[in-house]
TrEMBL record:
This is Cytosine deaminase. It is an enzyme of class 3 (hydrolase). Residues 99-385 form the Amidohydrolase domain. InterPro entries: Amidohydro_3, Metal-dep_hydrolase_composite, Metal_Hydrolase, Metallo-hydrolase_Enzymes. Its EC number is 3.5.4.1. NCBIfam families: PRK05985.1 (NF004636). Keywords: Hydrolase.
Length: 396
């Protein structure tokens, strides 16, 4: 039996207490009796559950490879084809680059990641195999879910569906999709194919939907129809969903109501450059929201650092969240919201849950979101994996 006592911590910024961890789980929250456990003194730090990165691209960052001078043109198709060309030219090795991102994410207090991983007829399963190797290697440090993602299109690149099928048979966790109208120009074809894969493998679906306004709304209606028809409530996520930020608020409200009825979740990155789903409206309607960093430092763009506390700040800024309850909700999206979408069992800061815990110095949770202090200590299943903003393990 392995015990660790976190002394003098404040769950969610509340009263000072202790957290006793036994065999990787929270055994007790409350002032501890004399104990034989190993002790970590939190010194009054706030304790929150591990941050959840619900939309990443672990296969494609250039992190640690020097500065990349951006080459892709502005259109989505430019970014996709430039990346396909540069992957091999620059040797963006998915195993090495995903391992680097695991260390980076852990240093910021992330304990679970859903990563979209490109599957296409050029790379075939290279990206999947690399990220799957990282998932295995860091099993004790990070929960990693892999989405088999047809980044270059499904209907326009015959052979991709079969590769996705193979990735799912080999351990991919989620079926991905991408702009069924904008990229594939065949929404029925793509959506029937990916929902078919989901049914065949008994897996959830997570679809990138960049399409704006009416086009995005049309694709979203087709996703809603399939979710309802196949009884996949609670198993579908739409990532980005920029169309929900459309100026036609009546249409966005109608979509939102359907999303709530079908329990379809939305994953947002809260970008500054696009209309975005409005977090408060989705919350009021009962639509679950999670968040992610998207690709970081990649051939798509130079930004990002996988810090989900910073992502909570971006959500707050983008949604004009000012009062404490709203800022706390921004953090909820980056913790429990992601855990719900990833269906992580026994998540949270409560007795019996896994001891995935982050300590940080701040007066309150909203102050932590606003100031983004270094993570003082990060525990995965009760084991320290990062301290003072540094991962406690090395990657090449
Ligand atoms: O489709 C997308 C969008 C952002 N980043 C990616 O890698 N792919």
């Amino acid at each position: 039996m392995k015990e660790l006592l976190l002394r003098n911590v404040r769950p969610f910024g509340g009263a000072l207490t202790d957290i006793l961890i036994r065999d990787g789980r929270i055994a007790r929250i409350g002032k501890a009796e004399a104990s034989t456990a190993e002790v970590e003194d939190g010194g009054g730090a706030i304790a929150i559950p591990g941050l959840v990165e619900a939309h990443a691209h672990l296969d494609k960052s250039l992190w640690g490879m020097g500065w990349h001078v951006h080459q892709a043109g502005p259109a989505l198709e430019d970014k996709i084809s430039t990346e396909r060309r540069l992957r091999r030219e620059l040797n963006i090795d998915p195993a090495r680059q995903s391992a680097r991102q695991v260390a980076l994410a852990a240093s910021h207090g992330t304990t679970a990641i859903r990563s979209h991983v490109d599957v296409d007829t050029d790379q075939k399963l290279w990206c999947f195999d690399g990220v799957a190797a990282t998932r295995e290697r860091f099993r004790d440090v990070m929960d990693i879910e892999i989405v088999a993602f047809p980044q270059s299109g499904l209907m326009i690149r015959p052979g991709t569906l079969e590769l996705m099928d193979e990735a799912l048979a080999n351990g991919a966790d989620v079926v991905g999709g991408l702009d069924p109208c904008g990229i594939d120009r065949d929404p029925k074809g793509q959506l029937d194919a990916i929902f078919g894969l989901a049914q065949k493998h008994g897996k959830p679906v997570d679809i990138h939907l960049h399409e704006a306004d009416d086009l995005g709304a049309f694709s979203m209606e087709m996703i809603i129809e399939r979710t309802r028809a196949l009884g996949m409530q609670g198993k579908v996520t739409v990532s980005h969903a920029f169309c929900l930020g459309m100026t036609d608020r009546a249409r966005a409200a109608a979509l939102t109501e359907h999303l709530a009825h079908q329990d379809i979740a939305i994953a947002t990155t809260a970008p500054a450059s696009r209309p975005v789903p409005l977090a408060a409206e989705l919350r009021r309607a009962g639509v679950r929201l999670c968040a992610g960093s998207d690709g970081i430092r990649d051939t798509w763009g130079p930004y990002g650092n996988l810090d989900m506390l910073e992502r909570a700040l971006f959500i707050g800024l983008r949604n004009n969240f000012r009062n404490d309850a709203d800022v706390e909700y921004a953090l909820h999206i980056c913790t429990q919201g992601g855990a719900d979408v990833m269906e992580i069992a026994d998540y949270g800061l409560r007795e019996g849950a896994f001891a995935d815990i982050v300590l940080l110095d701040a007066e309150t949770v909203p102050e932590a979101v606003a100031a983004r202090p270094k993570r003082k200590l990060v525990l995965k299943r009760g084991k320290p994996v990062a301290r003072d903003g540094q991962a406690l393990f090395t990657v090449e």
